[in-house]
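Job type: complex structure
Entries:
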Amino acid sequence: MSTATFERGYSALKEQIDTSIASYLQSCVHCGMCADACLFYTETGNPKYTPIYKLGPLKKVWEQEYTLLGRLKVKWGWSKPLTDADLAEWKEYVYDSCTMCGRCSMVCPVGNDLVYMIRKTREGLAAAGHAPEGLIGATTRAVKIGSPMGVKWPAVLAQIKHVEKSTGLQIPVDQANVDYLVLMSSMEVMNFPEYMEAIAKIMKSVGKTWTISSEAFEATNSGIQIGASDIAKEIVSRIVNAAEKLQVKTVISPECGHAYMAIRWEGPNLIGRPFKFKVQHILEILDDLRDQGKLKVDGTLEEARLTFHDPCQIARRGGVLQQPRNLLKMVAKNFVEMEDHGQMNWCCGGGGGVSAIEESHELRTTVFKRKKSQLDALKVEKLVTACANCRIIMEEGMEAYQMEMPMVGLTEMLAEHLPETT
Amino acid sequence: MTSADFLLMVRGPAFHLATAIFIFGILWRILEILSLGQPREHAAVRALGISGGFRTIVRRFVPAPGVFKRSMFIILAGYLFHAGFLISLFLFDPHILLFKETLGISWPGLPAPLINVSTLLGIFAMIALLINRLTHPVLKFLSGLEDYLSWTVTFLPLVTGYIAFQHLLQPYPLALALHILSIELLMIVLPFTKLMHTLTFLIARWTTGSRAAQRGIEV
């Protein structure tokens, strides 16, 4: 990142504005419905957390730069131009109190895609030097070390050895011409090695070839969370280069929400061309294999009453909605849906980089009350999800509210029900 | 100036001026928006976005599941106000006559007593919405001059129309002139305020819907 200045931030905001954003800002009638859809507002009652308010800086730049009346207003002194102090103040709204879950975008009566604009506003704040310390640290580590948590290849290799030992299966590394390149989040490498175990077992069971790349094992992209497209491009290019070098047909995005957004949807736009390989979420892969009759289970069913937490970037923003339900039906007897689920699910409270922001910790715990009340209403015994970050955040939240509930990743749960191999 | 002269003025030069500002203002604003353009989508899409955009234009008339419960007042009052306003504007016979004279097209209207009801509905819904805006913590916080100006110029045609229709102000030409003047005010303000949403919501819904449809999501 070059030196952050207000001018850079301002021009970054200016560059972001397209036809859709101009139509959104022009159409907002201040009805306030986006507040009712945002857990940061519903759980705190603070009107400053109203999603449209969080877009104040972007709106000001749009008015000043792209509307005749806005230009005249500034010229005649009727309105104050955007200042660096505004950007500093908005850090709390654009980062700390927004997980980019996109629930607000579902309810706006004029059809505004509010989270699309939040993502763009972050570009301006980051360029002006007003990103939170936690995200700056994660991004710096992602660029210099290769992972936001500072995980280096030797640590991955150590986990690989550990998984090979516990499963008795070989974990392929840097193998060319295989079916799948498997990516992971650092969180999975460090906290949930069960994911790698599950992949090894499933791939063996369905007879597919796969590999982990020593050059691109990390799926997450801090550049997207902080809002720095140049960095996001650099990070995603590592995966593109590795996938093209190994000539894989498909890259599998792991159980991580924003990683899917980063590589599946933003990735090609960041590098400015379509990928030469397919990108699928692990749940899409598993559901396709189920559909083809390749993914088989042993017929035993989970007895516990359980529900599924849709990670925002995979479901609402990513379009993977039906697949987890199809898969759950294979292994769960008592699967129940939360009142708001699928596209209308409530965020865990820690997505969009919020989990890396120190200042948000208390707020995150407060807004977890939304998820808590959803779970309390269902009286479930187990929670299944498909995002390591959601999982960590919800574990933290449950601990804070003294809730006892086992949580499991869906891929891992399926791996536990594979037929016995002979 | 007699009330008849006043009526002639608002019907003549003032109306032409307001119409010119209205039309050129709208064209200018739409051009400002469309000229910005959209970035190209390089990701492998699941479906084409064009029809998805149109589906979202229609779908957003109905709140998503669970949303009605949380935002009931604003949805109900909002719908009532829009219905009252649009029915009174487009289905009142004298208005249709004006459209016929200026645009050359006409359609059947509703009986006057029903227009009376729709106007009152619009008026009461707007008063409720204003009270809500002045008292609800979020709306109070978000609202500024533009919101109250937009409310005022939308409210005046309803009230002046009702006054003229019920002959509550004499002489009648004055009441009618005030009503026409209020419409002209609305026409002049609309292109430069959030009232532009009457047209730009189509672009907003379409772009959101098409982007989502490309990802296989119906929003």
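Summary: Chain B has one domain: 3-30+65-214. Chain B has a mean pLDDT of 96.
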